[in-house]
Every structure is written in C-alpha cells, then in structure tokens.
Amino acid sequence: MFPSMIGTVVIAGIVGYLSERSGFTRNGILQSIIICVGGAFVFYFISLMFNIGFKSHGMNAIAASIGALVIIPTHWRR
C-alpha cells in the first residue's frame, strides 16, 4: 500500500509539472503540482474504499491528476 501511494504522489507531481510546462494550465508550477497531488490522493483513497477505477495505480493517478486540473476553475483568472 505504501509504495503505491508514493508512486501516486510522484506520478501526480510529474503530471502537474508537465501540464504547466505544456500550456494546458496557467496556474503556476507549484499550484498545479499541489492540485494534482490532492486529486490523486482523494482518488487513491476512494479507489481503496470502494474498489473503483483502473487496475493500475499509475493509470488511476494520471486520470485523477488530469481530472483535478480540469475541475479546478481557472477561467476566472487573468
């Protein structure tokens, strides 16, 4: 359980960094990483409790990170 949680955090951080560098978001690098890690944590624990999601923890982390970035409203910023 613990190694998969650490892997989830690492993958979420990478997705947050890459999304900011590619121009997908304009939140700032640290903010995007925090959003992705938070979304990945929430989805990780929900998938443990309710046994939903993909079989791979890595795919869950990627999907949750992108989902968290999409959900966070950034269109009100200048």
Main sheet makeup: none
- Which value, in Å, is the CA radius of gyration? 12 Å
- In terms of DSSP E residues, the strand content is under 5%
* General form: elongated
Q: Structural class from helices and strands?
A: mainly alpha
How would you describe this protein?
With 78 residues, this protein is mainly α. The protein is 74% helix and 0% strand. It contains three helices and no strands. The chain has helices at residues 2-22, 29-50, 57-71. Helix 1 runs antiparallel to helix 2 (29-50), helix 1 crosses helix 3 (57-71) and helix 2 packs across helix 3. It is elongated.
Provide key terms for this protein:
mainly alpha, 3 helices, elongated
Q: Topology of this structure?
A:
Elements lengths: L1 H21 L6 H22 L6 H15 L7
What is the gist of this entry?
Helices cover 74% and strands 0% of the residues. By secondary structure, the chain is mainly α. Helix 1 runs antiparallel to helix 2 (29-50) and helix 1 crosses helix 3.
